[in-house]
Amino acid sequence: MRIARVKPEQADVPAGGTYYHLMNRIAGVPGDFPFGDVEKEKLLRLMKKLLGFYTIEPLGWVVMGNHFHLVVFAPAAVPPLAEAAKRYETYYAGKRWLDPTSEKCAKVARRMADISPFMRDLQFQFSGWFNRSRPVRRRGRLWGDRFKSTILGGPSGVWECIKYINMNPVRAGLVTDAADCRFSSWGEWNGTGAAPCAESLLRHLRYSLGESAAAWELADFHRELRSEFARVHAAEKKGALPPQIEAAVAEAQREPALLGILDRRVRYWTDGLVIGSKLFLRTVMSKYLPDDAVARHQAGPNAVAAAPSHH
Questions:
Q1: FRET label pair with 310: which of 146, 208, 220, 251, CA 20 to 30 Å apart?
Q2: What local confidence, expressed as pLDDT, does residue 303 receive?
Q3: pLDDT tens digit string along 232-268?
Q4: What is the DSSP string of 276-296?
Q5: Residue 120 region, left (φ>0) first, then alpha (ψ -120 to 50), else beta?
Q6: Is 75 helix (H, G, I), strand (E, B) or coil?
Q7: What is the pLDDT of residue 290?
């Protein structure tokens, strides 16, 4: 029997609420990486859409080949019923409506700040799309287990966890610079020039780092994160010496060259067009074409009808 998760309120958090590190991994054998660029993009799009419904605030994320991480703040307060009704109607694009005075609206409002239904919706919606969009449609569960949630406490828990999850692609050998990972919050920040959920991020990072960062702006946090990623990356290289680590940090503290910034943003934009087109085609075909037609179109007339391998 499943036991309900404990959802504590951290008394020292401004306005009340709890910081979480959320994570889940797919079922399967070690070394199986079914999430390619299209799958990662779809998971992020679903996440961002759901965050328009829920009052949970995202602070960092990364999607890998077989798992994902999220750092979030779940407020303790239930949203006002008028706000809950507006979020509900916006999420359903005006196709459904909610009476702010109804018991249903009160129930929906209580759900909106809860990580459990948020993760259940995210995983369920992604699993449905994933199963439908394979060359040969699959059935059954995708995720290996119930999602994991860790409460982030201490004065710098949020800060440390954001750094940790955004270093995943570097440690996995997918990129040499965390800023080049398209499917992470740090990669999006550097690829677009705009911090995801900037207002929430600024407020919560100031809380996480305390008085020393009370007057910091987003540019200060960006510089500090650049320095920290450079420090960790340099320190983890075999045979790294302190002077080398210090030199890497000093270089990261300098403002990036304009040409490098433009190059990264152009790559982010052009990659997004390609990935978005593939995602659109995959979704349309899986919805409107019979299974064998999808398989022939994606794999070619002479291909064996089997799921593709993603690394």
A1: 146
A2: 33
A3: 989 988 888 898 999 999 999 998 889 989 999 999 9
A4: HHHHHHHHHHHHHS-HHHHHH
A5: alpha
A6: strand
A7: 56
The answer to whether 187 touches 178, Cβ cutoff 8 Å, is yes
Q: Are 47 and 122 in contact (CB under 8 A)?
A: yes
The span from the CA of 84 to the CA of 174, in Å, is: 40
Phi, psi of 256 (to 5 degrees): -60, 150
Torsional sign, CA 120, 188, 84, 86: negative
Q: CB neighbours of 88 closer than 8 A, spacing ≥ 6?
A: 53, 96, 97, 98, 105, 108
CB 126 within 8 A of CB 46: yes
Q: What is the C-alpha to C-alpha distance for residues 70 and 58, in angstroms, rounded to an integer?
A: 7
Amino acid at 92: Y
Q: Show the tokens assigned to 223.
A: 């510089």
CA distance 238 to 233: 10
| pLDDT score, position 291 | 54
The count of other CB atoms within 10 Å of the CB of residue 259 is 8
Amino acid at residue number 164: Y
Give the sign of the dihedral formed by CA 205, CA 118, CA 279, CA 172. Answer: positive
Q: How many CB atoms lie within 10 A of CB 179?
A: 22
Looking at the DSSP assignment, which residues form a beta bridge with residue 143? Answer: 26
Ranges in the chain, pLDDT < 50: 1-6, 11, 292-311
Closest CA to 46 of 78, 174, 54: 54
Q: Which stretches of the chain are DSSP H helices? A: 37-53, 81-91, 103-111, 115-132, 157-166, 168-171, 185-192, 198-209, 218-235, 242-253, 258-288, 291-299
Alpha carbons 288 and 291: distance in angstroms, whole number? 9
Cα separation, 153 vs 166, in Å, equals: 19
pTM comes to: 0.86
